[in-house]
Amino acid sequence: MLSPHIIIFDDECDTGQDYSNPDDMRLYVWSWDQGEPSLSSSSGCTAMSPSGRWVALDCQTKLPFACLTPSENESVGYDLEWSVDLNQVGGWSEGTRVCMAASSSGRDVTFSAPHNGFSNAVLLNQAYGQTVWVNAPVSFKM
User: Fold this and answer.
1) What is the largest CA-CA distance in the chain?
2) pLDDT tens digits, residue range 87-116?
3) In what order do the strands lie in the sheet with 45-48?
């Protein structure tokens, strides 16, 4: 939910100082959750949690997948047609296969990840409160 606060980057506000509310800034940083990606050798794949934030999990965890269907209407936007089949779960590496199997009408469905906050919110709505895999691998150099 958006905060009623306004972010002002202007030194002419009442306090005479630049102002930004840290709670509001969280709205603009839409991908990784606080403390993520975790630096664990077993947490090498990315999932979107029910909060909409991304977390690193063990790649073998059984979750549904974020599948993207290309839009037939360019004015709709590139990454707004998300689908999540809650009955199709598997480890992260199965995402490409599962999403491709959902292709229909000549439209290739791909295992993907949101590219902006709005797209992330659309996917969150399609996830129905479930944690889902997104195609944004986590790489660590230990």
Assistant:
1) 59
2) 999 999 999 999 999 877 667 889 999 988
3) 54-57, 45-48, 132-133
Residue 21 in tokens: 């509310």
Phi, psi of 76 (to 5 degrees): -70, -35
Q: What is the pTM of this model?
A: 0.73
The answer to whether 123 and 116 are in contact (CB under 8 A) is no
**Could you give the CA distance from residue 135 to residue 11 in angstroms, rounded to a whole number?**
41
Give every residue of the chain whose pLDDT is below 70, as ranges.
1-29, 39-43, 72-79, 105-106, 139-142
- Cβ neighbours for 6, distance < 8 A, ≥ 6 positions apart: none
Residues 6+ apart with CB under 8 A from 56: 36, 37, 38, 40, 43, 44, 45, 46, 47, 138
CA 51 – CA 36 distance, rounded (Å): 13
